[in-house]
Amino acid sequence: MKKFKTESQKLLDLMINSIYTNREIFLRELVSNASDAVDKLYFASLTDSDIQLNRADLRILVSFDADARTVTVSDNGIGMTQDQLDKNLGTIAHSDSMAFKADNAERQGDDVDIIGQFGVGFYSAFMVAKKVRVVSRAFGSDEAWAWESNGVDGYTIEPAARDEHGTDVVLTLKDNTDDESFDEFLTEYGLKNLIKRYSNYVRYPIQMEVTKTREVLKPEVIGEEGDTEDTPASPEYETYAELDTINSMIPIWKRQKSEVTPEEYAEFYKADFHDFADPAATFSIHAEGALSYDALLFIPSRAPYDLYSKDFKKGLALYSSNVLIMEKCEELLPDHYNFVRGVVDSQDLTLNISRETLQHNSQLRAIAKRIEKKVTSELKKMLENDRDTYETFFQNFGRGLEFGIYHSYGALKSELSDLLLFWSAKQKKRVTFAEYVAAKEEGQTAIYYAVGETVERLEKMPVVKAVLSRGYDVLLCTQDVDEFCFQTMMNYGEGDDALALKNVAGGDLDLATEDEKAAAEAVTKENADLFAAMKEALGDAVSDVAVSSRLTDEPAALTAAGPVSLEMERILSQMPDSPGITSERVLELNATHPVFAALRTAQEAGDAEKVRLYADILYNQALLMAGMPLEDPVAYANEVAGLMK
């Protein structure tokens, strides 16, 4: 028995127990090695006219024997000599495929795609096997050799028999324990599932003998008159075994776009990403240069149920040379595009030796940046060319775009702001910021918006009606992130054309005329005692009581003087660990309303209790109209009932 080279036992133990973390990838590694062996033979046929080869005959065969507890991966590739078995399998971390790629780099084309890089993938077999036997016969040789090892003591190489060139890797699986079971790798379903998941797009057929069912044809019964008699009986079925090709081989993202129908893209999307609805949009990227890769991306037509839950995991499927590396590579998508599904395939990525993570994130960042720009571009095209589809998209995923602006502290404002849609109170439809600006009034210096739970409630708010009465449109926003997004943006547009974003329930909107301002100032001065009494009655609930220059029909309204709006306060208060942040509430009074006259009468009569009662009722009414919760609903109901006596 020969000993492993290169500090064999320590390195082998490190690989089996540390480098690889997912034991089921052993089949991916063995199939990839088999594909490389077939590729090397095919490459040899391209460069040596003496080698006559029919590519259609090249294949990889996977089989199992549940009784013997073996899994076998066979190929009819280039095979190995005795010396090559010793060199490639006896020296851990020696990669014959890597050397092949380096020696033939200039002569390889699209027809050859070597996968192996590190020479350690083979040893992942010892995660599931207690013994591995490799029988190989090199192309052009009459001799076959068998390499065998238990992964502990070393290995042996002995003469063997094999009918044709190629390699058989036979794994004798470990015995089951109370903690681990390996039986899943001894079933037709289990092996087919692993092939489809990790090796579905390996360029050569991966075949398995599978069990099928067919109806047994019964002989016709001929009657006495020579007629066929009808024998109504239940059909009988029999099972039989047949060699099937399990993998698809040609990835849909590698095919020319002109050769793929929209129906084929949709079927691929639904099958691979487990959605029953066709995607809203499909687009691809084909990049060549310092970093070459293919990407096929989909925008879903509906939001998954867990999109906004903490359990949702974003990411694109990452392939290297058609072999799945990661099912969801999070680094390829920014959070605001977490809804995008698809695949990225590159043979230029620098993987670690287990292929499960990447060594240099700079490569991923370059791909991710290109994908982000592509998604932005495609969404803008959808907005311009297919408005109905885009509006449905925005209803499903628009919240994430706004969150992207907020989470980036406004850094993504220029990229994402033109993709946002909001309901226009004036135009009665969804509009973009650009469309709002295009329809604004002459001399208008701000974009006005209101934030609340529903459009219907917002339309009835006094502060909204007040702005509309002056001819200005108001964006009615119903997402919990709207206010945070707007405050992060601060304005829309560039340079001197930028318009400030103003909440209609915020401080002074500067919409009053000079005459209106003068009138409000006069009323405030004349009724200073009344305002002081109301503020004292309301206590810490408000920061001020003032005359409103914006109200028309309603007696009072609640606004916020500081940076924290009423809506922000409402949302923050609903969080599990509420920070207790409150707004600076201002109770604004309509001096032309009959209620204000009643307040003045009570104040002039010295009826402090009635002033307190009226102040409390007006404040609670303003809270209700603003969509804010009442601090004491029972007390408010009793106060209203008291007026009815």
UniProtKB/TrEMBL annotation:
PROSITE patterns: HSP90. Residues 571-645 are annotated as: C. Pfam families: HATPase_c_3, HSP90. Keywords: ATP-binding, Chaperone, Cytoplasm, Nucleotide-binding, Stress response. ATP binds at residues 29, 33, 75, 80, 88, 117-122, 167, 355. GO terms for molecular function: ATP binding; ATP hydrolysis activity; ATP-dependent protein folding chaperone; unfolded protein binding. SUPFAM superfamilies: ATPase domain of HSP90 chaperone/DNA topoisomerase II/histidine kinase (SSF55874), HSP90 C-terminal domain (SSF110942), Ribosomal protein S5 domain 2-like (SSF54211). This is Chaperone protein HtpG. It comes from Xiamenia xianingshaonis.
